[in-house]
Amino acid sequence: MTGGGHFAGAVFQGKEVLQHKTFHRYTVRAKRGTAQGLRDAQNRGHTPKSAGAALRRHNEAALVKDIQDLLKSWSDYLSVASGIFLRAPKYNRSVFFGGRGAPLEIKDKRICSLPFATRRATFSEVKRVHDVLSTIQIYGLLIIIIIMPIKTVEEDEQSSEDEGSVQLEMVEVTLGTLDLREHEVKPNKKKRRKRRERKTTEREGELLLTSDLSHWQNSGTAVVCEWWEYGLRDALYTACKTGDSETLCTLLQGEEITALHLNTPVDSAGFTLLHVASAAGHKATIRLLLDAGSDPACRCPPTPYGVSPDKDTRNTFRKYMAEQPDKYDYTKAQVPGPLTAEIESKKAEKKKAQKVLRRRREREQKEERRRREEEEEERTRFLELSDTEKVVLRSLPSPTGAVLMSRCVFMCVCVCFRRCWQCGASLLGKVPFEYLHFSFCTTRCVQAHRRANAAPKP
């Protein structure tokens, strides 16, 4: 079992635990509820570059390696296991089946998904799941369970072959001349007796069935109703948890569904069906429950709006508030306010304007970086020249005399009169410090140039 940075696995032989191991890594950001790898896959163009995101990516890779190493160490148990039960999200199944050295094969018939909802992947949860899978529930005569028989083509062919073989063995006909006479054909007495016996047994079975049903109606109505309510709540919970809108719509159209079923807590924490759908982020399921009468102002401390994992799910409540403002107590449900199409259009325009400003700011920053790079290149070229070359360039009558020079030297001719001879800084808009034929930006550059060109003492 894996999910949300948690992993738990165990090897059972009957009720005995042969091996077990659990891992936990920080891979899900708090208050967001999605793994970092899943968020990166959803927003490939805008992946976050924070330290926390980098840490979560590193932890995801480490968790994958830990799981694969553990399953490789359990390869002896996996090769002889009669069944392998797996619970993993769709985006995380590559941990078990992806890559060349995958620990499991996707075509292995022993691998089965867990057919019911589970909690966080811990060792105690693994033991609970094993107990559920290894337990058989036997129902009494008072419980009516409708199960559609699952028949395969092979079983049908085998049954037809068996029936054909039985008919070939049982049918034996003896021919005689007496049967060929006309107008004296009489039915076989044995067949008539068999038909009578079959009719009597059918009548006795019907009488027994009616008596059992009457007994069940008189004494077991309460038990059946209780089991029927349990199955109905389980079907509603599964539809809300998985986001199966079609099944939920079919269940809600039944006459036996009332507001009591929708607003009754389904667990010890006090969560209702609307809490379950909101926590799972199924927007269509939330609207169906609200239309059916599921109250968002539940007394449970976290309201359905409060357990919503993302902004889109929360906006579903706000949009429904705009459509049905008087249906529920939205103040008690902690819904901040209605969300209409006009508000959404204003937000879209605001985001568009912010995007335009951001692009303009990026262009300005790009232009500023380009200008600084050109300034730095020009300064570097000027500093590479010696004082003699600078004097020669300065003594040229005009830039036209330097056309025969290289482009680098020509650029220095154009800028040598407005740059510091020591550090190469621009002198535009400044009053330079000069001595002899040199120009400087500060007195520090003047002193440094003098010390560098001072004559050695005798």
From TrEMBL:
Domain named VLRF1: residues: 1-136
Family per similarity comment: Belongs to the ANKZF1/VMS1 family.
Residue ranges of the region described as Disordered: 184-203, 345-380
Annotated domain remarks: The VLRF1 domain mediates binding to the 60S ribosomal subunit.
Localisation per UniProt entry: Cytoplasm
Biased composition range(s): Basic and acidic residues: 362-380
Matching PANTHER family: ANKYRIN REPEAT AND ZINC FINGER DOMAIN-CONTAINING PROTEIN 1, TRNA ENDONUCLEASE ANKZF1
Record's keyword annotation contains Hydrolase: yes
ANK repeats: 269-295
Gene field: ankzf1
Protein name per its UniProtKB record: Ankyrin repeat and zinc finger peptidyl tRNA hydrolase 1
MF (Gene Ontology): endonuclease activity; hydrolase activity; zinc ion binding
